[in-house]
Structures are given as C-alpha cells and as structure tokens.
C-alpha cells in the first residue's frame, strides 16, 4: 500500500478546489521551472533548478533525462538519491486529485536507481537503492532495494538476490 495522506473534500471535485490546497502562484512558478528544465540539455542546470526553485532533494550526479516531469504542485515531496537516472518522459507524482478527496505522499527514490523511459511514479512510493524500473512502468507500490520491477500494473521481476545470481 502506498503511503499517502487522504484529505476529503465536500461540494465540487477536489481538483476544482485545487487553489484551496496549493497557491496559484506556486503552481505557476513550478510549471515554468519544470517546463524549462524538461528541455534543458545540461543535467547540472536541471538539478540546480529543482533544488533551488522547487526545493526537491536531488542527489549528486543524478540525471533527469529530457522531458521528465516532476510534480507541479508538490515537488518538495520528491527526493532522489545520488547517481540515479530518471528516464525520458517519466512523470513523478506526489499528489492525486480524486472526485471526493485528494491524496499527498512523499516519493523517495534511492541511490543508484535506474528508472526507464515513459514510467509514471505515483505518490507515496519508495524505490530502494540500486533498484531498476523498466520502461513504461506504472510504479504503484514500493520497489525493494536492488530489485528489478516493471509492467502495468508493476510487479517485481527479480529480487536483489535473483539479479545478483543472474550476473554470475
């Protein structure tokens, strides 16, 4: 189960009430920074923008590929460790707005993690150190350290021990 906090709403849908939960100007700022970073070819610039303007925790030598989209409303809830690779066009969400509630959850991506292209990471998920997530995966639950995961819905393909055994 993902680690999210639920906030019920009354009246219209939760997304219709979005500016009660997050400032319009914060969303504007995040949107502009993310759109610039998505097309910036310089990895160090992206990391600097994410750390400085979005308050994301981004480790040393982490590589966000072209078109990666961190959460536009709560990017400060995203943490990425050292030497991680986030593949092309991946989306990292820390929120989800539903009809009668919205949910927030921290996303923690460990050190030496590889996320394949076109993946979506849902709120409240932890991806352990050394894990590999294959391309086009919906990460809807935690990925243990060293494991390889993939698919939609995601499943564990190899545990850390099985991956190490295959390398021998």
Description:
InterPro entries: Hexapep, Trans_hexapeptide_repeat, Trimer_LpxA-like_sf. This is Acyltransferase. One of its GO terms (molecular function) is acyltransferase activity. Keywords: Acyltransferase, Transferase. The chain is of the alpha/beta class and 168 residues long. It has a single domain (11-167), classed as UDP N-Acetylglucosamine Acyltransferase, domain 1. 24% of the residues lie in helices and 26% in strands. It contains 4 helices and 17 strands. It has helices at residues 18-21, 24-39, 43-54, 160-167, and strands at 5-8, 57-58, 63-64, 69-70, 78-80, 85-86, 91-92, 95-97, 101-104, 107-109, 114-115, 120-121, 126-127, 132-133, 138-139, 148-150, 155-158. It has a 6-stranded mixed sheet. The chain has a 4-stranded parallel sheet with strand order 2-5-10-13, covered by helices on one side. Helix 2 (24-39) packs antiparallel against helix 3 (43-54). It is globular, with a radius of gyration of 16 Å. The mean pLDDT is 96.
Key words describing this protein structure:
26% strand; 4-stranded parallel sheet; alpha/beta; UDP N-Acetylglucosamine Acyltransferase, domain 1; 4 helices; 24% helix
- CATH uppermost class: Mainly Beta
Largest sheet: 6 strands, mixed
**Rg measurement, Å:** 16 Å
How much helix, percentage-wise, in residues?
A: 10-25%
Q: Taking strands numbered 1, 2, ... along the chain, how are they ordered across the largest sheet?
A: 3-6-11-14-16-17
Q: DSSP helix count?
A: 4
Proper CATH architecture: 3 Solenoid
CATH topology: UDP N-Acetylglucosamine Acyltransferase, domain 1
The end-to-end distance, rounded to whole angstroms, is 33 Å
Q: Sum up the overall morphology in one term.
A: globular
State the low-pLDDT regions, or none. none
Average pLDDT, rounded to a whole number, is: 96
């Amino acid at each position: 189960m993902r680690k999210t906090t639920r906030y019920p709403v009354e009246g219209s849908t939760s997304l219709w009430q979005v500016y009660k939960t997050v400032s319009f100007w914060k969303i504007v700022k995040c949107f502009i920074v993310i759109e610039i970073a998505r097309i910036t070819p310089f990895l160090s610039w992206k990391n600097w923008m994410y750390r400085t303007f979005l308050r994301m925790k981004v480790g040393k030598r982490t590589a966000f590929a072209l078109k990666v989209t961190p959460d536009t409303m709560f990017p400060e809830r995203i943490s990425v460790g050292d030497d991680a690779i986030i593949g092309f066009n991946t989306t990292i969400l820390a929120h989800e707005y539903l009809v009668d509630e919205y949910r927030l959850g921290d996303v923690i991506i460990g050190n030496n993690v590889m996320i394949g292209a076109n993946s979506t990471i849902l709120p409240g998920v932890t991806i352990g150190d050394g894990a590999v997530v294959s391309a086009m995966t919906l990460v809807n639950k935690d990925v243990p350290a060293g494991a390889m995961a993939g698919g939609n819905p995601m499943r564990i393909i190899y545990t850390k021990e099985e991956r190490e055994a295959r390398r021998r």
